[in-house]
Write a structure and sequence with these properties.
Blueprint: H1 9-26, H2 31-36, H3 42-51, H4 59-81, E1 84-89, E2 97-104, E3 110-113, H5 115-123, H6 130-140, H7 145-148
Antiparallel strand pairs: 1-2, 2-3
Length: 150
């Protein structure tokens, strides 16, 4: 059993992966399709989010949606770019650390992004668009050719 105040990177990674797979399944995207192409879930996920009664959401609904989308963003980056979860210190956070995604950009530099932050940014820029959210993460990690043109 892992201490609640100690990072459990493997457990976190496995839970987020399982969550992303469950989302694809809930949206009718077969496992083999999703695992061979994580973008295959985008149309259904966009439709799901656009139809969700966001104005009626309670805090628990927002937390669930936030974590679901963060799980998908992370899984997309892991599948498409061979990114991985890692733990970073966060002395201002409630537990003193955060789980973030780490990837090597097109310029060879390793960067990190917190999928929870990516989703939070998208929530403040409605309507929620899955492709824009993924692009934001890609640009932050400089995984997109457009990032080199800035």
């Amino acid at each position: 059993m892992v201490n609640a105040n100690e990072p459990d990177l493997q457990g976190w990674s496995e839970e987020r992966r399982r969550n992303a797979i469950d989302i694809a399944d809930m949206l009718g995207v077969p496992l083999d399709v999703y695992t061979s192409d994580p973008m295959s879930v985008i149309p259904a996920l966009d439709d799901y989010v656009s139809r969700a009664p966001l104005s009626e959401f309670e805090e628990s609904d927002w937390v669930t949606l936030h974590l679901d989308l963060a799980s998908y963003v992370a899984d997309f980056l892991i599948q498409k770019y061979d990114a991985h979860w890692t733990v970073v210190d966060d002395p201002t956070g409630p537990v003193g650390f955060r789980y973030v995604i780490e990837a090597t950009g097109l310029d060879g530099q390793t960067r990190r992004v917190d999928p929870i932050d990516v989703v939070a940014k998208e929530f403040s820029n409605r309507p929620i668009e899955i492709v824009r959210m993924l692009a934001s993460a890609e640009l932050t990690l400089k995984l997109s050719p457009q990032a080199d043109n800035e």
